[in-house]
Amino acid sequence: MAGCGCNTTCSPTQKISPKFRKALWIALVLNALMFFVEIIGGSQARSVSLWADALDFAGDAANYAISLAVLSMTLYWRATAALLKGVTMAAFGIFVIMKVVWSWWLGLTPEPMLMGAIGVLALAVNVICALMLYAFRDGDANMRSVWLCSRNDAIANIAIIIAAVGVFGTGTMFPDLFVAFIIAYLGVSSGLSVIKQARVERKVDQGNIMTKA
């Protein structure tokens, strides 16, 4: 695990920085609010990438809530929470891919101005969250997963803004679908990365417990 010598000091309850807890609460509230903004805006703009990002905001809000619940627990349970979040991130990516195919079949072209405006707002929110969580990116799998969520969302929002310009310029849905696919790829790849680290940390903690016994 990053930032830990993986000896017997890894397993006991971790002393959590009040700054990290505060950052999670702020990120939780902002993500929950943006979920509703993008659900409504995505429906109005007929944008798959905004809908995908809305679901991502909802998933992140749930992830932050889970993180807050396990902050004071042992490494094993923090890693278990991270494992759950990793699975959620990967599942979200698969869902978005299915949504892309469905939207392509329907052939709906988004409204680029509204799509771009909401993309800018979402980017601002995710940059704020990413900056707050940046200092904790090299912590355990649980800390790393919340940092990855905000970082990936900021990247996705930049892509959504570019896609809005693309939709405006081409008059087609394909830039929107392409960005939605990128969001899906980020979700799957980051989810697998978090799952890998979380599984290692669970094994490390179990090994420490057996050593103590």
From TrEMBL:
Bilayer disposition of the protein: Multi-pass membrane protein
Membrane-spanning intervals of the chain: 23-41, 61-79, 86-107, 113-134, 154-171, 177-195
Domain (Cation efflux protein transmembrane) ranges: 24-198
Keyword line: Membrane, Transmembrane, Transmembrane helix
InterPro entries assigned: Cation_efflux_TM (IPR058533), Cation_efflux_TMD_sf (IPR027469)
GO biological-process terms attached to the record: zinc ion transport
One Gene Ontology cellular component: membrane
Name of the protein: Cation efflux protein transmembrane domain-containing protein
GO molecular function: monoatomic cation transmembrane transporter activity
Subcellular location field: Membrane
Lineage: superkingdom: Bacteria
